[in-house]
Amino acid sequence: MALQPTPLNRLSVMAGKKGLTDLHIPTITEDAQDVVGMQGRIRLQKDDKVHNSQWMDKQRNNLLAYEYLCHIGEAKEWIEDCLQDEIDPIIKLEESMRNGIVLAKLADWFAPGIVRKIFQDTKLQFRHSDNINYFFEALKVARLPQIFWFELTDLYEKKNIPKVIYCIHALSHLLSRRNLAPNIKNLLGQLQFTNEELSATQRHLDLSGVIMPNFMNVGSSLRRELNELEDEDYITNVPDLIIEEEEEDLSDSEESQLSIESATEEEKFERYWSDTMNQEKLRACQSIARTFIARKEFKQVHELHHSDDFVSLMSQLQAHVRGNLARNQLAQIRATYASQAKFAVQLQSVCRGYLSRAHYKRTMDYYKANIEKVIKVQSFVKNKLAENAYRKLTTDTNPTINAVKSFIHLLDDSDLDFDRELALEDLRQQVIENIRDNNNLDAHINSLDIQIALFLKNAITIDEVLKHSGAFKKKKEQQRMISEIAVNNQHANPFSLAGIDKDSRQRLELYQQLIYLLQTEPKYLARLLSMTNRQDLGDYSSHKLIESTVLSLFGYATNAREEYLLINLCKYCIAEEMKDVESTLEFMRGNYTFMKLVVQTNRGAKERQFFRTLLSPLVNEVVQNDFLDLETDPVSIYHKAINDEESRTGMPSNRPHAVTSQEALADAEVRDTFVIHLRNLREITEKFFAAVTSTVDTVPYGIRVVARELRLILEENFSSEPHERIIRIIGNFIYYRYLNPAIVAPEQYDVIDAVISPMQRKNLAEVSKMLQHISSGSVFEDAHDIFLAPLNEYVADAGQRFGEWFLALTDVEDPESYFGMHALTDQTNTHKPIVYLSPSELFHLHYTLQTNLDTLEPEGAGILHDIVTEIGPSAYHPDIELPESMVCLTLTNRCDNIPMDPTARLQQLLVDTKRLVIYVIKIQTGRDLAHIFQTPITSENETAWNQLKHKEFTETKEDFTIVSKRRLLQLGQSEPPLDLQTISFFQLKSIANRLVVHLERCKVIANNNAYQDVINMIARDITGKNTRRMQRDRELARMKLTLNHLQEKRDYLLEQGNSYEGYLNSCMTAMATKKGKKQKFIFPFTRQYFHMRGLQKLGLVPKFGSYKYTAKQLHERKVLLELMDIPKRHYDRIPIILSMDQAGIITIEGSYSGWPMSSVQVDMRYEELLQTQFEGVQTVTVLDGMAKVNVNLLIYLINKKFYA
After folding, report:
1. How many structural domains compose the chain?
2. What does pTM read for this prediction?
3. Mean pLDDT of the residues in the chain
């Protein structure tokens, strides 16, 4: 390693032979002088200025900075020569090189293809490091030794810029040695810099603390790393050796030295080389030089022979030689074999036979030893082949006959399918019955609640409560008895639809057709519900009955079919009701029927589970925090603060009670509490908001698809409205109509099980109000909400996010795809749909349709008009009480029995055609359906058809319905059904061919593809079979879950009813044991005295008393108003007895000789009389209509005599 040159040595080199005349270094070369006896060596000296003791160190440092800047200038000019482009000045070059752009351009110049893309940006970014890495890759290509490299941080973070410049110098020497780049110049002493530039550079070097590389020795260091010794080095060193020897000789003789100095140059040369010793030294040097040159030449030749190009060339030459030798050897072998061809063929034959037999034996032995594995592999291969065939069936546009035939068995309903259908129908019936029972229980509990409230506030009598507590059970018993009587007397019941006579059966079928039509043609119910919303159907009770009937009509959407049809009804209702809406503001203010339907149907088991999963943690967090208060009204907070102060101190507060909101907020305590409430409200609202917006796929499908239809209708009807406005309307519908009730009343939706206090409900209401503003995108601007204005920024931001969530909810597939439904779904199902309605619902629906028929079917003629006309007048009348027993309607399509419109008829014909084609391809096969129709029929085909008929159409008790549906085929309306079991295969094939041709004529299928469309339709039916089974399994699971939830609710309602009745029983016990009730005194020899004595003699004294009056007495008291067809002068002859032997049952007995029966006795329930009074009825008839009494005075008389 060469010694580090001192600054003075470097300065001497910079001065060179010309001395100091052309060299200018501030503070150093100004007025500089040579060292005495050493020309070219600068003498460091003070100038005339005043300096401190560090003047010499400063000059040395300036010399170091100058040399460093000169090396930067050398690198700059070399890069510019290479790139033929100008770069930044020397002073700025350090900073401009940090982005690596200059180095990347240089790398692309000397190593093309390395740099893919140069990242250029005015601001230094980390991506600029890619440019520096490109330079490193180029250094690898150039094979610059690693010792000259710099680190990425040396340049990017300016940790060691001198090392970067040193690397560029080394690279220049390397490339110039290979004649790939120009030589780098030596600019020491040729550049000038200001004092400030030198000082700044030196400060930078001092701060970095790096060691300055030896730029003067970079060439020799590079050669040393490359293991190369150049001639120049040797030549440079040889004179040094000679000079050293000269100095030794000259030191021996001072006289010789003086003579040499006094001689001329030529004389010195002649004298020196005439010396024998010097000649021997010269020859030694020449020998050394020749040896070095020879070794170098040998090394170059050796390196050339081991270079990649030479090795590749020699490899190609060797390959050619080896190939020629191999071809010559192969030709000789072939010639030998050709001369012995016959023997070779025989030998090969024997060898192949032996090898084949040996291989076959080994294979069979292996298979026998692993027979179980073979069976598994065969099963796997068969499954894969079947899977590939099924995938081909599902993906091919035109599947082949054989592909369809392989999976045609999947269209057959198995016993498992049949059993699951029965189980599903049974569960549906149980769900509907549970819903009705729960509704009745709920109504009973509400009635008890009303009676308890009346009892506590209005002091109603305990007997009224007692009688009412058993009213529900007695009513159920009465209904059961009425139902049994109706069953036993069907011929006498005008409302029965279960009769076996012709009229009852026909009326039942018409009702079944009517309900099926209303289900599958939603336009009628949509118009009817629109009339209900416009209050065009009479009183409020009729509207409610129609709405509840519609839900029963669709079985409360308990299975996929009914849910699909109900969603279609909602879609039609949206279109029907939006016809009259003129603006979005009007829509926002309306309360439409489809909203009620969606909200009611989307609160079943899965919806309640969704609410519970989503809201239960959030609501519990609010409810279980006893110290949480989200009150945002400053006045309310102010009043609460006063109450707390007075409760804490026991003294009246000095603060005034009547204050405004501004005055309340002026109170420091109120203001701090208000701010805390706002902060808590925002945090809790954000939790609710985050939880709600994190759910998209778990939101029930019904609400999502209705929201989508509503969005499409709004966008179509109000195309000029901004998109954000439409999204806000959808958000208001989804949140306010669907989510908001579950938040403000969580106990009603099974979100929580606990009872909510008023403060907790107030907190939930505040959160709900925030979410309501967020969903509608409206900020707090009203006077009563102005103090929530600090949350407006949050409301606006959350509203934007809520809108995105609402839009994501409406991105859902259509109902047909989701449910797997199509127009012929009912035709392919084994079981017909069943609906359960009460007589009142059915007959009232009939009555409403009949009354508004012209509005529902304005065309004047149609299927609805025909069915309603055929049924005749409705049995419904407001004054007639209908039985409560349920009517089971097995729905049928009227199009099966009456002439259908051409489109519907073609659809039915298409279904029948596919059935027959399936039977045909089960027996025969061919390349396409047309080819099968043209193929002659053999006896084997007839035998196979007979076997198929025996398998398909064998009747049993369990599957009679399925077999009948398979056997019978209705080809014409006027013709009887065709029994497939009675026809031959030839007839079957002929009928199928005619039907296909007819469909082709009607353009249902194409006429140029050999009836391939029919095969495609059958393939789609096969691939959709599994989807229908999966849907049925999901429905079974959903039904069970719904039934479990309904039973849980029933248990809850029963428990609640028992608690209510327990409370009533405690009231009754308290009233029955009260003191002060004394036995009334009866005056002797009065009418009452003799009446009681007569009863005592007969042993018929009522438990709670008996009182005898004349009609005249009751008439005078205004209790009795009149007796039918009896003059008032005879009233004193008519005795009337009031008695009560059983609690709550009043017996009224009267006798008169002019009546058809001399004595009339009736029982009247006391609670029914009270209910009559509650409804405002003034008079009622008793004694089988013989007497009219005043209700209020009769109750007063009963209370006075029996309960006083």
Report:
1. 5
2. 0.43
3. 78
